[in-house]
Amino acid sequence: MTTAITKVNGEPVADEPRFDPTALAEADAVRTRAKAEAEALRIEAQGKADAEKIKAAEEAERQRITNERNRLKLEKDQAAHNTYIAEQKRRKEAAEAATEKARKATEEEEAKEAALVAEQQRSERIWKWGARGIYAVGLIIAAPIQFLAFWDKERPFLVAAPALLEGLALAMAFGAAWAVAHRRDVMPYRIGIMIGACIAAGINLWHGIDEESIGINAGIIGALASLGGPIVLMAYEHGIAQKADGIPSWRERRAADRKAKEEAAERARAKQEKADAETRAAKQKADQQLRADVEQTRKDEDRRKHHKDVWEVAEALRSARGSQYVTEQIWADAWYRVTGSKVIGVRPEMEAESRAAQARMKTITELPVMGASSQVGSQKAPRAKKDPEAPDGRRFNGGVPPLRRAGDALPYCDAAKKQAALEQADTVAANKTI
Fold it and tell me: In the chain, which stretches have pLDDT less than 50?
């Protein structure tokens, strides 16, 4: 029982506040709770502000990435468009260049053809008037000689004889021109020209020899004039006839012959190359067939020697199927029929030995280790040796044990877990026995 002291040495003692630990603890708790709530509110507000900042930063970064992607896409599209425009421009320029080149080539070809036609017309015109001029000159030379030869006062009508003789060749020349123009036979007219020219030349030569007033020189010149004019005119008409009939000239025939010879040589060369290629291919095929036959013979001898039972079945299958030799498919079927194995070369006893060896290896590799060496210490790295003079850390850590967290220790492997389970089972069985 507690007695309250009211007086000390006869004097009253004033009332003093008593110490109340419960109220102090409650006040402390209220202050702590208020402080914690304020701190929580501050942390929450700070977290929301940080979250807003992070969200704004993420949104800005996302918008920046989007803008960057749009910019890159726009640049890519612009580059592709520029490339397309450049390609279209290049194709257009190439097409225009090709068209211009073709146009220039056509114009050059047309110009060459026009120049050739103009040259042909010019040369033909010169040749035409040159032949007629030669005929006229020959007529001028030969006609006076014949007039002198046929002039007779008693028979004046004979003065028309030169016109008949020279006019005969001229008329036949005109007939030859008509025949060429109307695509008729020109040979009779040419014969007539030569007959008339020969008669006129003979008369000029005879009168030149016979009459001293004319002379041998004039007779020879008159004969040549009578022959030269018709011959030149006939040569001109002959060329015109060949051109109208499409008969090639000697130069064209020579060019055609040369081209034909070149084409024949090219065909002969191609034919020879083809024959050589066929010969090489046949030789290669024969060599391949020979090597295949030698290899087949080797395989047949080897199989017949080392696998007699399978070979007999393979020969039976080959004969039944009408094959020339034992193919790989026939040999695989025969091997399967005899040994039951789909793998060629593997027999039942070989398969049995292989499976037994595989089983032994599996048993050895999965067998648990019992005894003193059962603890699998190799799952952790060896602990580093500590210096004997080093202080014990446990005495200087303030009495607080070290804090261990998940993941500090290395995980055990499957073999260690299996070994631990086996030892635990053995321990439980031993305890039950005891």
Answer: 1-5, 7-9, 13-14, 16, 372-380
Burial of 62 (0-12, 13-18, 19+ CB in 10 A): exposed
Predicted local distance difference test score (pLDDT) of residue 376: 47
Contact yes or no for 180/194 (Cβ under 8 A): no
With residue 151 as reference, give the H or E element that holds it: none
The residue type of 140 is: I
SS3 12: strand
Among positive and negative, which fits the CA dihedral 405, 408, 412, 413? Answer: positive
CA–CA separation, 145 and 221 (whole Å):
10
The pair of structure tokens assigned to 14 is 């004033």
Structure tokens at 22: 């419960």
Cα R_g (the chain), whole angstroms: 66
Could you give the 3-state DSSP secondary structure of residue 7?
strand
Nearest CA-CA partner of 180 in 29, 337, 398, 172: 172
The predicted pLDDT at position 393 comes to 57
Angle subtended at Cα 309 by Cα 303 and Cα 310, rounded to the nearest 5 degrees:
55
The number of C-alpha atoms within 13 Å of 199 and in the hemisphere containing its C-beta is: 14
CA-nearest of 168, 210, 212, 216 to 193 is 168
Distance CA 114, CA 108 (A): 10
- The label of the residue with tokens 């199927």 reads 321
**225 touches 144 (CB < 8 A):** no
| Residue 86, C-beta contacts closer than 8 angstroms, at least 6 positions apart | none
| DSSP secondary structure code for residue 344 in this structure | T
Question: Do 215 and 208 contact (CB within 8 A), yes or no?
Answer: yes
How far apart (Å, rounded) are the C-alpha atoms in residues 50 and 45? 8
Q: What is the pLDDT of residue 431?
A: 59
> What backbone torsions phi and psi does residue 85 show, to the nearest 5 degrees?
-60, -45
Beta-carbon contacts of residue 317 (< 8 Å; ≥ 6 apart)? 326, 330, 333, 334
| Burial label, 163 (beta-carbon count in 10 A; 0-12, 13-18, 19+) | middle
Q: Which two tokens stand for residue 410?
A: 């290395």
DSSP line for 166-231 = HHHHHHHHHHHHHHHHTT---HHHHHHHHHHHHHHHHHHHHHHHH-TTT-HHHHHHHHHHHHHHHH
Question: Is 0.85 surpassed by the pTM of this model?
Answer: no
pLDDT of residue 5: 46
Q: Residue 338: how many CA atoms within 13 Å on its side-chain side?
A: 22
